[in-house]
Each structure stands twice: as C-alpha cells, then as structure tokens.
Amino acid sequence: MNIFLIGYRCTGKTSVGKALAGKLTRPFIDADEELVKKNRVTISDMVAEHGWEFFREKERAVIKSLCSLENHVIATGGGAVLNPDNVKDMKETGLVIWLKASAETIHSRIIQDIKTLEQRPALTHKNLMEEIKETLELRNPLYQYAADFAIDTDLSDTDEICNRIKERL
Ligand SMILES: Nc1ncnc2c1ncn2[C@@H]1O[C@H](COP(=O)(O)OP(=O)(O)O)[C@@H](O)[C@H]1O
Ligand SMILES: O=C(O)C1=C[C@@H](OP(=O)(O)O)[C@@H](O)[C@H](O)C1
Ligand SMILES: [Mg+2]
C-alpha cells in the first residue's frame, strides 16, 4: 500500500511526506516535483502560459503513474482531489491521509514559503485570505471523502505530525 498525503496548500504534505518516508524507510515522491521535472517548467510558468485546465491534465497523468508504485509515500498537490479519477486511484492503491490547517495558518505559511512564487500561482482573482477561505469551503468535502483519516497540523511540527501518523498506521 502507498501512503498519499492530501490537503490544502501549505498544510505540509511535501515536508511531512519526506520526513515520514524517512521514518518508515520507504521511498518518497512529490507529485508536483515529478510534474515539474517531466514538463521542464515551473508550475507558475505552466499556469501563466497554458492555464489551470492544462496543469490539471498534467497533474492527472502524474498521479495516475504514481498510483502504479508500491509502498511509496506520495505527497500530492493541494488540488489533486479535484479530479475524481485521482481520488479513485489513490483510494484503490493506498492509504489517504488528509493534512489540515486553519485558514490563518495556511495564509501565514503561504506568504512565508520561498517556494510559493514558483509553485503556487493564484487560484482566483480574490485576495489571498478570501481565496483560501473560499477554496477550502469548496474542497473540504473532497478531502473528507478521499481521506482515510485526518491530522491537524496547526500546533505541531513535522516530527510530531509524523509520530501522530505512525500511531494511526
Ligand atoms: N507543521 C508545520 N509547522 C510549521 N510550518 C510548516 C509545517 N508544515 C509545513 N510548514 C511550512 O509550510 C510551508 C509549506 O510546506 P510544504 O511541505 O511545502 O506544504 P504543502 O506541500 O502542503 O504545500 C513550508 O515553508 C514549510 O516549512
Ligand atoms: O492547491 C492547488 O490547487 C495547488 C497546490 C500546489 O501544491 P501544494 O499543495 O504542495 O502547495 C500545486 O500543485 C499547484 O499550485 C496547485
Ligand atoms: Mg507540496
């Protein structure tokens, strides 16, 4: 079984995934890193040039191929659950863990993370806090449906989050 990490931007899927894979001595793969390597373009440039629909098609291709792996820890991008085929494949081939955080926590991590510029182009025309709240409201039912269980990340560091995940495995 693979372990898939899902959740909104900056809930820690990439950082927790890496650390968890280390602790479980399993290989780690980040779907966004794969997409960038395969297409040789940053997410921001891809979306600026071709739009979100194009990005979602590339993301689907990556997730589909990662679902054929075994025993990997796989960090997805925050919007992977928008495609029901991704959700179906992840549920069939692994355990799906939802990392959660409040809109305030997400906002503060997004504006502080150096990778935001290349990796997290705006999803809407709203200001960042409104975008987060509105998008969370739309996506929360999708994360909920996809996930086997959820972990709150607001008050814990990566190490604590890994330990809490390990307790649930
Ligand atoms: N539990 C946490 N506590 C504090 N900062 C965190 C935590 N998890 C992630 N971060 C920070 O948030 C930013 C985004 O983390 P990342 O792992 O890339 O999230 P995601 O892959 O979900 O977008 C990084 O700057 C990271 O250091
Ligand atoms: O929430 C989203 O729609 C996205 C999240 C990003 O990944 P992270 O969740 O790792 O930031 C990246 O896949 C892309 O910018 C789209
Ligand atoms: Mg990530």
List keywords for this structure.
169 residues, alpha/beta, Rossmann fold, 9 helices, 58% helix, globular, binds adenosine-5'-diphosphate, binds shikimate-3-phosphate, binds magnesium ion, Shikimate_kinase_CS, kinase, nucleotide-binding
Short description:
By secondary structure, the protein is an alpha/beta fold. The protein is built from 9 helices and 5 strands. It has a single domain, classed as 3-Layer(aba) Sandwich (Rossmann fold).
Describe the model.
The chain contains nine helices and five strands; from the N terminus they run E-H-E-H-H-H-E-H-E-H-H-H-E-H. By secondary structure, the chain is of the alpha/beta class. The protein has a single domain (2-168), classed as P-loop containing nucleotide triphosphate hydrolases (Rossmann fold), CATH 3.40.50. It has a five-stranded parallel sheet with strand order 2-3-1-4-5, with helices on both faces. Helix 1 (13-24) crosses helix 9, helix 2 (31-39) packs across helix 4 and helix 6 crosses helix 8. The model has no long low-confidence stretch (mean pLDDT 98).
